[in-house]
Design brief:
It is built from eight helices and 22 strands. It is α/β, with parallel strands linked by helices.
């Protein structure tokens, strides 16, 4: 029996100010939709009996209508293909208050689709396999629920789907304020497969336990990570990772400017940027230990212009303030407008209120940056 495992698709995520000209929407938002669609394309081509999504289908508790519509259309494709599809709610998709209601309820009418969002989880039988789907939960905690948890063996095969960090000899978590973690010893080796979600890198964390990772890159910490989905044979326990084509990130090697003048820093930055392929990539350049005199005369805007062909170019300059002391001279955050947009998108309010906040705030921020 074959299973496909994917996770952390974060539909609705957006960043930076570039638009996808074909779709007329934020380019990074479009990137995440395309990655998810490619994941569904590959899944349908593989034709497994079951597909599991181990959390964070959406980037926020209250996703925009566009993200909901896109997710619905892709899940309908799986439904029409007759593939049993199990979705668990992750920490990004689970309201803090139960009375808020969970967006997963809109998928309950779809044939072959099993959304699981209630604390405590749900058991779903697919052919010879019993799959225990366990969504994000704080009360009871996931550590409590998984303590002593074993496959029922009412069927020949047993799999666990869970959205959580894992803590043991090695630690796998995202350091988010509302994340849940479970001890590594809570993952029983008796499961034929454990589909983990939350950690964004493809990793084997137990004898038969894997993170599939996210389907797109969300930060520079993921710049070198491959993104994809996992194909699993539950009988032989064979696992195969299928890579997706996603937006490239480049975190350029940090350079030490402690002995350089402003003109030398500018020349070094020019050589590094011109010597790299940055077109349509997400790029970061970090310059450290810039002396106060060099910092004051450094043409930061000229360096930023060198990165214009990138989808997004992020410049971070660390200035030496005093003997043995440093401070950030040019912070790692993006343009104010980009940061404001990310903040508004993350708010747990209606789309109308988000649009109103954007309408009121963006003109002031754009004017300030100009």
């Amino acid at each position: 029996m074959r299973l496909v495992h994917l996770s952390d698709t974060h539909l609705g995520f957006s960043a930076y100010s570039k638009l996808d000209l074909a779709e007329g929407i934020n380019q990074r938002e479009a990137d995440f939709y395309r990655a998810f669609q490619e994941a569904i394309d590959k899944t349908i081509d593989l034709g497994p009996e079951v597909v599991v999504h181990s959390g964070d289908l959406f980037d926020t508790v209250r996703p925009q209508n566009r993200a909901i519509d896109f997710a619905l259309r892709q899940l309908i494709r799986l439904s029409e293909s007759g593939i049993e599809t199990i979705l668990v709610s992750g920490n990004h998709s689970t309201p803090r208050l139960r009375e808020t209601g969970n967006i997963f309820r809109i998928f309950e009418h779809l044939k072959h689709v099993h959304p699981v969002h209630e604390p405590g989880g749900k058991t779903i039988v697919v052919g010879d396999a019993t799959i225990y789907a366990l969504p994000h939960s704080t009360n009871p905690s996931l550590a409590e629920i998984t303590s002593g948890l074993r496959p029922s063996r009412d069927t020949r095969l047993g799999a666990l789907v869970i959205h959580a960090g894992v803590v043991g000899t090695d630690t796998y978590k995202m350091d988010e304020f509302n994340e849940q973690t479970i001890p590594a010893e809570n993952i029983s080796p008796e499961w034929d497969y454990v589909a983990l979600g939350h950690y964004h890198e493809f990793k084997k964390v137990g004898s038969r336990a894997y993170y599939s990772g996210s389907t797109e890159r969300l930060s520079f910490g993921e710049a070198e990570q491959k993104k994809g989905i996992i194909e699993v044979d539950l009988d032989s326990h064979a696992v195969k990772f299928h890579e997706l084509r996603v937006r490239s990130m480049l975190d350029m090697e940090v350079f030490d400017a402690s002995r350089l003048t402003s003109s030398e820093i500018l020349q070094e930055a020019k050589e590094r940027i011109s010597g790299a392929i940055i077109d349509e990539r997400i790029v970061r350049l970090t310059i450290k230990n810039v002396a106060p005199d060099a910092y004051r005369s450094l043409d930061v805007q000229a360096i930023r212009r060198m990165g214009n062909s990138a989808l997004h170019f992020e410049l971070k300059v660390d200035k030496v303030e005093g003997e043995g002391q440093k401070q950030v001279g040019d912070t790692q955050i993006g343009l104010l407008a980009d940061e404001f947009k990310k903040y508004v998108t993350s708010l747990d309010v209606s789309d109308d209120k988000k649009s109103k906040l954007m309408e009121m705030g963006m003109p002031y921020l754009m004017r300030d940056e100009e």
